[in-house]
Every structure is written in C-alpha cells, then in structure tokens.
Amino acid sequence: MDNELLGHELEEWKPMEPQKGPPLPEWMGIYWPWYTLPEAELSVSNLVISPTEVYVGEPVTISCKVTNIGAEAGSYTVHLGGDFVAEKSVTLQPEESKQVSFEVTPTEAKTYQVSVDGLTGSFIATEVPVADIRVENLVIEPAEVNVDQKVTITCTVTNIGAAAGTRTIVCTVA
Predict the structure, then answer these.
(1) Are residues 163 and 116 in the same domain?
(2) What are the backbone angles phi and psi of residue 124, rounded to the nearest 5°?
(3) Please, what's the largest Cα pairwise distance for the chain?
(4) Are 125 and 55 in contact (CB under 8 A)?
(5) Which domain holds residue 28?
C-alpha cells in the first residue's frame, strides 16, 4: 500500500490552500463552509452599432464582446434593451471571449436607443429619399399661330426631392 490510502494517491491528501480550511482530499469534493468554489465571471464590453445611419427597413447589427475573466467555465445571457428587446446566451471557458450580435430593423424614421448590459448607444433611421419632380413655368410662343407655323413650348423641370429620378413630360396639342 505504499503511497496509497483507501485507493487514492498520497498526493491527493496534501493540505489545501489556507482559505479552504484544514486538509481534505480533493476527490471527496468536501469544502469548508467559508470556502466558495471558483466561479465564472463574465464581463460585457465593446458595444458596436453598425451602421449608425440607415434608411427605414434596413438592418442594423448591434454587437458586443463577452469575456470570461473568472476561473471556471460559465454561461451568460446577454440582454438587448432600449427600443429593441432580445437576448442571447453564450457559454465561455476561463479567459475565453466571444462576439455576440443582434440584428434589428427600424420601422420608422427616428433615433433609436439601444443598451446591452449597461452599455448604451444609438443609431438614426431616416426615410428613404424619393424624387419629387415638379413641372412649372409653361411658356407657349407665339400664343396664337396659323396652321403650319412653328410653336415653341418650354417649361422648367425641377427635382426638389432628396433622390435622383426621372419624369416623362407629355405635350398634347388639341
């Protein structure tokens, strides 16, 4: 039975760290009441909102980095709040990091506020620009003509909208 006690190596009976209390074999899984087992400790950082300006109906990605700075593996639920609500769970080993992303789509033109576990940010959604083409200042010269005489018709066409566009102008002589 050299170096063996109850089927276990003598090394397993070595004293524990002082905060764990008097020596107990680790294989027994017994700890003193004042000792707490190492835990996962997860932190959320690096909130990224991309893009920060979109048109209504276009997707926006909200992401963050979750890092396990604890001594044990653990799971964590990341909560998206503000104008959108969602959650995702992630499991991490000690010192492991993962990117967690949410995709949202704005439904109206406004500034949207988002928060992820204490980190906050915003993005702007605007209306999709449209062309607004106006026809004005119609001029017919000369105003009266005989058959087979030349007539010049002019007008001013202006796009007062926020996007390029086309419009067909039809002139009907009756």
Answers:
(1) no
(2) -115, 135
(3) 130
(4) yes
(5) 1-37
